[in-house]
UniProtKB/TrEMBL annotation:
A Pfam match: polyprenyl_synt
Protein name (Swiss-Prot/TrEMBL): Polyprenyl synthetase family protein
GO molecular function list: metal ion binding; prenyltransferase activity
Highest taxon above the source species: Bacteria
Species for this entry: SAR86 cluster bacterium
């Protein structure tokens, strides 16, 4: 990416953050305090970057991209607040979570506040089709969380269930925002479906990458090592380990997880090449992203987007 393009992206992200701050401004200072805290620790704004990079190339005007990015980021932030409550998480991006810092009651209320502000942001889009698409994304995110809790409670291990959960919990918002770009540009049904599939492939690669990062240190990832395992979430490397094991070995793996012997689990994953197998699945998804990207992006900009996809999706 050239210096000018980097500068344009940086300016865009600053405008998105300013828009989010404006949307979430409240007369209640306790709410503003949490908002200020969250917006100072919002991560890499991957969804906004995708909206800018693809939306600019497809020809959507910048003000619309800012509105769409703001709505998408607010949906994402509200799910993170509620996820941390469900998971009883203490740390996110190397800082205390909202539930850890302000307690469960204020965290629940604040997550609800963000959802209401999301719908306010959707109204500003002035496009019912886009609003409906993002509302469907929010519904799927909740559905995915329910499914993940069910799987966790039942100790079930199934690769199909895993992909269903990550499609609804992670990939659906990526596919939704890319489809919204196409809706704004009035692309035909075929192109809208291609943008949707691009987003699903990106989301799949993104989540597998996150699964792999669960086995890295917090200094590298910004989240506690083995955070997902400690919360009972069965990530792709673990599920692949189960699939390579007989019933007695699976019982042993469950026992190791329940007793917190995560280093032993990690060694078993290494010995069985399940990290390698998970990376292969991630590379397949990245290849799909690149293939779909080539259908929409001009030749002279493809290399920049290939680099972006690789850097974003490889841990």
């Amino acid at each position: 990416m050239s210096n000018i393009e980097e500068q344009n992206l940086t300016e865009f992200l600053l405008e998105v953050k300013a828009k989010m701050a404006n949307i979430t401004l409240s007369e209640n200072e306790a709410i503003n305090e949490i908002t200020s805290y969250i917006l100072s620790n919002t991560g890499k704004f991957i969804r906004s970057k995708i909206i800018f990079l693809y939306g600019s190339e497809i020809g959507v005007k910048k003000p619309k991209l800012i509105e769409l990015a703001s709505a998408a980021e607010l949906i994402h932030l509200s799910t993170l607040v509620h996820d941390d409550i469900i998971d009883e998480a203490d740390i996110r991006r190397n800082k205390p979570t909202v539930v850890n810092k302000w307690g469960i009651k204020k965290a629940i209320l604040y997550g609800d506040f963000l959802y209401t502000k999301t719908f306010q942001a959707l109204n500003s889009l002035e496009n019912i089709a886009i609003s409906n698409e993002l509302i469907k994304c929010a519904e799927n995110l909740i559905d995915g969380e329910f499914n993940q809790i069910e799987i966790r409670n039942n100790n079930t291990v199934c690769i199909e269930q895993y992909y269903d959960v990550i499609e609804k919990k992670t990939a659906v918002l990526f596919s939704g925002i890319l489809k919204c770009i196409g809706i704004e540009k009035k692309l035909d049904t075929h192109d809208l479906e291609l943008l949707k599939q691009l987003g699903l492939s990106f989301g799949r690669a993104f989540q597998i990458n996150d699964d792999l990062s669960d086995f890295n240190t917090s200094e590298i990832t910004g989240k506690a090592e083995f955070k997902d395992l400690s919360e009972g979430k069965l990530t792709l490397p673990v599920i692949l380990l189960f699939e390579d094991s007989n019933s007695n070995q699976q019982d042993q793996i469950f026992s190791l997880i329940q007793s917190g012997e995560y280093e032993t689990i990690k060694k078993k994953i290494i010995d069985s090449d399940c990290f390698k197998k998970a990376r292969i699945e991630r590379e397949k998804a990245i290849s799909n992203c690149i293939e779909y990207t080539e259908r929409f992006i001009k030749l002279d900009k493809l290399d920049n987007l290939r680099v972006f996809l690789k850097e974003t999706l490889v841990a």
